[in-house]
Amino acid sequence: MAQQTPITGKAGASGGKSGIGVEPDPRLLVTQTSPPGLAAAALRRIRGGELGPLPVIVGLIVICVVFQLMHERFLSPQNLSNLTVQVAAVGLMTTGVIMVLLLGEIDLSIGSVAGASASVLAVLAVRMGVSEWLAILAAIGTGLAIGILHGTVFAKIGVPAFVVTLAGLLGWQGVQLQLLGSDGTINISDSGAIAALTQTFFVPAFGWGIAVVVVATFLVFTLLGERRRAAAGLPAKPPVEIAVRTLALAVPVFGAVFVLNQFKGVPLAFLIFVGFVVAFDLILRKTRYGRMVFAVGGGAEAARRAGINVDAVRISVFALASMLSAMGGIILVSRSFSASLDTAAGEELMMAIAAAVIGGTSLFGGRGNAYSALLGGLVLGAITSGLYLLQMGTPVRFMITALVLLVAVTLDAVSRRTRRTHARGG
Amino acid sequence: MSTPVLELSGISKRFGAVQALDQVDLRVAPGEVVALLGDNGAGKSTLVKVIAGVNPADSGDILWEGKPVSIGRPGDAQRLGIATIYQDLALCDNLDIVANLFLGVEKSAAGILNEVEMERRALKLLDSLSVKMPSLRVPVASLSGGQRQIIAIARSLLGEPKVVMLDEPTAALGVAQTAQVLDLIERLRDRGLGVILISHNMADVRAVADRAVVLRLGRNAGDFPVEDTSYEEIVAAITGAADNPVSRRSGRASVGRTEEA
């Protein structure tokens, strides 16, 4: 929708609604503030290839409906509660992968980093008798250190990220095998801090409290933000749109709390996962650091010339990704009460990358958001859980997951092309 | 004429065996558009890099507002108030106009972006340049070439420079878009900025430039007031039309005859 807008000789005096204080270009589409106008604007964006989270939400609903029709327990509170705990570990890893994908790079080592951190955790907590909290911190620190190493080799020496993290994939798995030794498995206490990460469920009132706080915070900050925009003479969102957005947030939040409260309550692991997703979303959208990440992903040379320390951004992103992988590894240990040779050594890497792409983060860099981790993780989790209920094994699950991944990447590529032809940018 | 804001004299730069610049002079006054012309390899880009601090000169003097300065790094040039807009505009395609304008100099408090303030200032800046954009929140990839060039120029103005260097700003632009950029250059001049315009396009030069400085093979080959100079004279200086075997021979012949006489 790029109109060729001529420069007017003299600035028009009328502060029009076009956003710039000159006469609105008559060829420009002006978004009406009435509900039908907003709906029309939304439809226009979708046609232009700005699909946003729409395909994955539709996909998630379709998957849920299909599995519910095939198995009546799929949408039961118990199954959904299990699902939310299951997606937490890979979800944290996905959040890290998204940061790396936004840079236009890839991290293949996250599975091995999760495994290595998990074995550090188990060795410290069980074999060496360190307090579990300290062991958790040490495992997270391990991930951080590994990420800084990867990032430095990539950014400072210039080895492609693909190769650095491929070496990491092998090397850190070796460390994991070495640390766990001949037994191959270290069982952890089922009553300690580590186990509590996935065994804790909050009482219903707490869950409701969180839901109220989240929605209220969103509403208050949106209202304040739009008021500031209006005060500064900038186009602000009409109240109708704010109401619709708040409702679009409130329905899933309160719905999830309601369903989870039917079983044991909101699980701590899921809360940790969602908390990190929200935190990273805010970091990416609202902070200078997030802006730098997008800038480097969109054009490293442009970012460098603008005075952004590209190397530091790259190293920090790899550090964050590995740190989140380590957290994912800790959750994996917590769920299985043990660190073993299998911890994060299997499909976790592929699932984390697939979830990021399915959730809507572009493989081409510079486009995406942290919510992809939540949405993509839920899609893959729903497929896993549904097929498990239907007693279909890993072979079928892999094939179906592959299909979903392919559809997601195709959508990414097609919408990218549509954006180009609608001049919305790659 | 007022004191030049930027004055270079006797600038030389050598790359290995190549003498890229040899005793080049250039001066720019406030509110003046100087076109820097020359064929490929004439040393235009080298001179731009000297001024921008990317490739410091081997010898020569630089005066800034009458005072001698040295420009050793890009930061030096920026601190003095020299903004350079390179041909590849160095915009991030995935970011919107406001984000690109403030890239690297975001308004923020404790790391949190102040989007309202940035959008307000972006609006004011583009308004003051009489630039109209469909929306400040579209990714710059969706803009036309001319609009992108304008955003790149507008971005350089945030640092309140006194001299703006534009490297081929109208290359690859359509007719209307070129006119937009030329309008903007005139507005920069009206604001009292010194503009150095590197261009191959004689029509553009004649449209906006006050003076045309021609480089040829790393040397000054002429400094013309654009208004009273014909197109042919400038082209002759660029191509060195006067510098060919025939004219050299006739020059020698006339010298020879005078000696005989």
Automatic annotation (TrEMBL), chain A:
<dbReference type="InterPro" id="IPR001851">
    <property type="entry name" value="ABC_transp_permease"/>
</dbReference>
<keyword id="KW-1003">Cell membrane</keyword>
<keyword id="KW-0472">Membrane</keyword>
<keyword id="KW-0812">Transmembrane</keyword>
<feature type="transmembrane region" description="Helical">
    <location>
        <begin position="373"/>
        <end position="390"/>
    </location>
</feature>
<keyword id="KW-0762">Sugar transport</keyword>
<feature type="transmembrane region" description="Helical">
    <location>
        <begin position="242"/>
        <end position="260"/>
    </location>
</feature>
<keyword id="KW-1133">Transmembrane helix</keyword>
<feature type="transmembrane region" description="Helical">
    <location>
        <begin position="51"/>
        <end position="71"/>
    </location>
</feature>
<feature type="transmembrane region" description="Helical">
    <location>
        <begin position="161"/>
        <end position="181"/>
    </location>
</feature>
<protein>
    <recommendedName>
        <fullName>Xylose transport system permease protein XylH</fullName>
    </recommendedName>
</protein>
<feature type="transmembrane region" description="Helical">
    <location>
        <begin position="110"/>
        <end position="127"/>
    </location>
</feature>
<dbReference type="GO" id="GO:0022857">
    <property type="term" value="F:transmembrane transporter activity"/>
</dbReference>
<feature type="transmembrane region" description="Helical">
    <location>
        <begin position="315"/>
        <end position="337"/>
    </location>
</feature>
<feature type="transmembrane region" description="Helical">
    <location>
        <begin position="201"/>
        <end position="221"/>
    </location>
</feature>
<dbReference type="Pfam" id="PF02653">
    <property type="entry name" value="BPD_transp_2"/>
</dbReference>
<feature type="transmembrane region" description="Helical">
    <location>
        <begin position="133"/>
        <end position="154"/>
    </location>
</feature>
<dbReference type="GO" id="GO:0005886">
    <property type="term" value="C:plasma membrane"/>
</dbReference>
<keyword id="KW-0813">Transport</keyword>
<keyword id="KW-0997">Cell inner membrane</keyword>
<feature type="transmembrane region" description="Helical">
    <location>
        <begin position="266"/>
        <end position="284"/>
    </location>
</feature>
<feature type="transmembrane region" description="Helical">
    <location>
        <begin position="396"/>
        <end position="414"/>
    </location>
</feature>
From TrEMBL, chain B:
<keyword id="KW-0547">Nucleotide-binding</keyword>
<dbReference type="GO" id="GO:0005524">
    <property type="term" value="F:ATP binding"/>
</dbReference>
<dbReference type="InterPro" id="IPR003593">
    <property type="entry name" value="AAA+_ATPase"/>
</dbReference>
<protein>
    <submittedName>
        <fullName>ATP-binding cassette domain-containing protein</fullName>
    </submittedName>
</protein>
<dbReference type="InterPro" id="IPR050107">
    <property type="entry name" value="ABC_carbohydrate_import_ATPase"/>
</dbReference>
<dbReference type="GO" id="GO:0016887">
    <property type="term" value="F:ATP hydrolysis activity"/>
</dbReference>
<feature type="domain" description="ABC transporter">
    <location>
        <begin position="6"/>
        <end position="242"/>
    </location>
</feature>
<dbReference type="InterPro" id="IPR027417">
    <property type="entry name" value="P-loop_NTPase"/>
</dbReference>
<dbReference type="InterPro" id="IPR003439">
    <property type="entry name" value="ABC_transporter-like_ATP-bd"/>
</dbReference>
<dbReference type="Pfam" id="PF00005">
    <property type="entry name" value="ABC_tran"/>
</dbReference>
<keyword id="KW-0067">ATP-binding</keyword>
